[in-house]
Automatic annotation (TrEMBL):
Protein name as annotated: Helix-turn-helix domain-containing protein
Organism: Sphingobacterium humi
SUPFAM superfamilies in UniProt: lambda repressor-like DNA-binding domains
One Gene Ontology molecular-function label: DNA binding
Location of the region described as Disordered in the Swiss-Prot/TrEMBL record: 89-114
Comp. bias (Basic and acidic residues): 105-114
Amino acid sequence: MNDLSHISSLSDAAIIRAIGEFIKAKRIDSNLTQDEVAEQAAVSRSTLSLMERGENTALINLLKVLRVLDALYVLNLFTVTEPISPLQLAKEDEKKRKRASRNNKPNDKAYTEW
């Protein structure tokens, strides 16, 4: 499942199987049994087994299993970022300080007369 550059050409079933293979590989790499992952994720072992075989399961169960396997990072691509218009970017740039300035008022604590 390393090269998914062709993922748009895969069927839904093939993508689900690839997700199942990923889950199984992460579980084995974590040295966890299906029973252990299922218990920690609060799903049945048969649900996890179905997931690993590429069968349809509920999305909430996928999230629970990914959380247990510390693999929620795969969802980072789903983050929506609003594009900043060039005009807004220019306005934000104007607000930034361009130079350092000195405080011309003497600091009472640091100021001493001789």
